[in-house]
Each structure stands twice: as C-alpha cells, then as structure tokens.
Amino acid sequence: MKPDLSVKIHSLQLKNPVMSASGTFGYGPEFDDFMDVNRLGGILTKACTSKNRDGNKYPRMVETPMGMLNSVGLQNKGVEYFIHQIYPRISHYDTEIVVNVSDSTVEGYIEVAEKLNALEHVTGIELNISCPNVKEGGMAFGTSCPMAASVTRAVRDVYDKTLIVKLSPNVTNIADIALAVQDEGADSVSLINTLLGMAIDAEKRKPLLSTITGGLSGPAIKPIALRMVWQVAKAVKIPVIGMGGISNATDAIEFLIAGATAIQVGTANFIDPSVCIKIVDGIEDYLIRHKFNSVNEIIGSLET
Amino acid sequence: MKKFMHDFKVVRNDIINPDYFVLYLQCSEPLPSIEPGQFAEVLVTGSPSTYLRRPFSIYDVDYENRVVSILIKSVGDGTKTLSCLSEGDTVNMIYPLGRPFSDPEGSDALLIGGGVGIAPMLLLAKSLHSKGCNVDVLIGGRTEKDIIEPWVYEPFARVFISTDDGSRGEKGLVTQHSIFHNKELNYNKIYACGPNPMMKAVASLAYSRNVPCEVSLENLMACGIGACLCCIVETHEGNKTTCVEGPVFDSRELAGWH
Lengths: 304, 258
Fold this sequence. Notes:
The complex is a heterodimer of chains A (304) and B (258).
Chain A: E1 7-9, E2 12-14, E3 18-20, E4 42-44, E5 61-64, E6 67-70, H1 79-90, E7 96-101, H2 106-117, E8 122-128, H3 139-142, H4 145-156, E9 162-166, H5 174-183, E10 188-191, E11 195-198, E12 200-201, E13 206-207, E14 213-217, H6 222-235, E15 240-243, H7 249-258, E16 262-265, H8 268-271, H9 275-289
Parallel strand pairs in A: 3-16, 4-7, 7-8, 8-9, 9-10, 10-15, 15-16
Antiparallel strand pairs in A: 1-2, 5-6, 6-14, 11-14, 12-13
Helix pairs in contact in A: 2-4, 4-5, 5-6, 6-7, 7-9
Chain B: E1 4-17, E2 20-27, E3 39-42, E4 54-57, E5 60-62, E6 67-73, H1 77-83, E7 90-97, E8 108-114, H2 121-130, E9 134-141, E10 158-163, E11 170-171, E12 189-193, H3 196-208, E13 213-216, E14 232-235, E15 238-241, E16 248-250
Parallel strand pairs in B: 8-9, 8-12, 9-10, 10-11, 12-13
Antiparallel strand pairs in B: 1-2, 1-7, 2-6, 3-4, 3-7, 5-6, 13-16, 14-15
C-alpha cells in the first residue's frame, strides 16, 4: 500500500508536502513543459503588490558558492493584472494556489489581501514581510515583532482563508517573530526567506548587484534554514513550512523531521525545472523504505 | 514553443584554440525545431564553484544525427569544466529557449558577431540563405584567435573579417569595416551579437541609416524560462525578460540604446 503523503496547513489540503517557493516558479505555467504542476502539494506564486512594480535595476543576480544572490525587487504588474490576466491562466490547476503578497504599506497589504479573498481558486496567501530587496516595506515589516504583528493583524481582519506569514532570517530571534504573528492570527509561518548578502567585483572594486546587497539562496543556506525551522517549530503551535536550499528529497525530509509540515523548493527549480516532482517521488520512496504509512509520522520526529 | 530537458552525449569536443571550443552533443530523442537565435541552458557538473546552468546560443543543428553544437568561450570555472568534456560524457540541457531572430523585410541581411557572439549567426545565415536572402557575415574580434571558423559561413554568405589589432581581416572595430562605406550595400536588416558596446555601436549605425537592427543580448540568467526575472532588460514597454522575451530584441525596443 502506498504511504499517505497528504498534509494539512490550516484549510489547505496538500496532496503532498511539496510546494514551489515564491519568486522561483513564476506563476506555474513556466514549468508546464517540465512537469505536471497538478502533482505538487501547492504552488506559491510570484509576489503580488497593490500596484505595478518595476523591480530593481539590472544586474539582479550573481552566482555565489552553492547558491546565488538576487535583487529582483518584487517585479510584478500589480493585483488587478494578477486577477484579470494571470488568475484565469492558473485557476485550472488541481493544486493549492497560494499567492505571495507584498507591499510597502499596511494599506497596500490589506488591499491585495481583500482582492485575493474573492478568488475562488486562490486558497491562501503568503504574507511576504521578509523580502530583503525593497526599500520600503518588505523586510522592514518582518524584522520587528510589533511591525510583523500589526501587518499580520491588519490582513487577518480582512482575509478569511489560510494566512501564511513568510519570515525573514535576518533577525536576532526568528522564533519571537513567529510567535508574534501566530498571536495575531497567522495560520502558518513559512521560513526562511533569503539571507541578506553581497558580492563584490574585486578587479573593478564595484558591487555585483545594482542594489549592492541582495538575498542569498540555494544549498549554501540550508543548514541555517534547517536550524531556524527546528527552532520555530518547537516554539509555535501553527504548522511551519520549511524552505532554504532544498534541492532533493533528502533535504526535504530533513526539514520535515525538523518540524516542518510542508516544504517549499526555490532556487533548485532553476537547476532542474522538474525537481519538485522528483522530491515528491523521493519522499514517497523514503516512507516506503522506512515503512511509514504517512508522511505525518516523520514530521517533527527528530530524535535528540 | 515547447521546451525540453534532455541528456545529450558528447560526440565531439573541437578545441579551436585555448579560448574557444565547440561541443557536439547528441540527443537520444529526435530534436525539436530550433530557430536561429535560440539558446540552451547547460548544466555544468564537476565544477564545485558552478551552481547555476549556463546559457549558450545554439551554434548549429544536425537534425538527421540529432546533434546540437554549441560554441563556447572559456571564461570561468563553468566553461573551463565544459572544455574538458570528451566523447561519451553526458550534458544535460534545457532547450530551445528564447525568442529567435526574425526575417528581414527584403532580401539583404548583414550578420555581425563579435568574438563568441558569432555563435547564433551560423544557424541564421543558413536559414536566411535557404529563404533566398543575400547574406553577409562580418566576424569581429580583438585579435586573430577571436575569429572562429570563418569558413563555415562560406556556403551561405559572403564573409568579412575585422580585428582590433589587424592580425586578420581589416584593422579596427566592426563598425569601421569598409562594408559600411560601400554605398552599393543596402541592407534590409542587420543582426548583431557580441559585447554590449559593439552591439550598441552597430545598432547606432543601423539606426542612423534607418536599417532595422536585431541584437542578441547576453544578460546574466538564472532560470532561463521566465520564472525568476533576474535577466531583465529595460525596454520602452517596461522591463522584459532576456530569456523568454529575448534574447533577440529589435534595438529600437531597448531603452537608452538610441
């Protein structure tokens, strides 16, 4: 008998714990040629803001040892464009569609959340209070407990489906932020967003990103992400979604053992656009090999 | 256009000189249609410092033998690792990617490649020649070793060469080549690929003569399929992705080019 891969994140019924991470998966159709997106537990769309955002200037990316820095800066055409142009192209997916929501003001977050609340097939939002690449909002909301709490509460009051809050690792104590958003009504926390980093061209003595600093992702950050997921999972009562450098099924399983109920795959999608499905299959193989009936048996099963 | 991810077997690695090599890669499956100007994202294995795929223009296609060839310049650890591949090795590629070159409104075309920027021009020369166009190819480089396989264009085009130091062909930049001073020549479209300053100079010259110019950009890329928005270029219609909406752009689309 096949093991049960399904997990629950509040009202989200994921057929397996594997989701795509926002900003690395477009809106989904970009990957249709490489995998059956319907087989994923869920997809996290690119960030959606109240108004059109051009994002940051080029260059926006630099490769680093076992990872990359990006400073895309939440480029998107705004929530109205999403509703009228993107949503009709993705609403057919038979998977949980979660929209990543960001803005520079609390009012902006509220506006986007309210508008998305009306979309039948968008079953949750992920509040992005942790983007390191925008001047206003973004990480500023996610690095102080009062700010994180206030934006979570404001959105909670207008949004009645699953509310996930995406946490920044660029803090002294990530568990404190997780507790603050839990107390204000977050249904789940996802972590970690990218770590603030930078790269320099030594020959030219110039930064390699237009924004000087950017967000570090990829396998390089996995040990930090795993540690933070473990700390947060111990501290909160709501489900944790783990991410940060997950490249294969073993990585994903480590996050589940550390206490994540689901995981998100980000930068690895650039290396192998079918990696998410390979991770789903790999988790199933692991469960069979270890004679588990359900993936829930390994969540938070770290033996210390 | 559907994209594929396939493992290819190296059937040949032609080392042209210490800086340039051509990989001939065979697919076990029939190749999809590949248009001039499209590129592939190549996975580099065995290089500890290379994490992301590397984008390369597709140099040539042999549909009968299911072989794609890629012209590469060794510049960093990733390309140096690829230069060491030999017959029987496996290379994983995502392809065919990006927007191809478009045909000229007329029968006369000039194709200009600077250094490894010549890479997309062979397929284009073949394609335009097969459609009855008169094709000129101008190959530019800093020095003689940057002039890669000029003879391959000869069945399809007239070939011109310029080098900065005069070691091969005319001395000077491509835009200083005598074909631009030949009043007989009246191109319907100019195509350019190479370093940005070269492409901008070519585009300016084309613009001043009211000739459409398509350039193939080589922006830094991560995903290659439009998912990450790392490779954007500023256009008059806002940011566009080099990987999906490019790499080929009409130079008049690009902000700050004219």
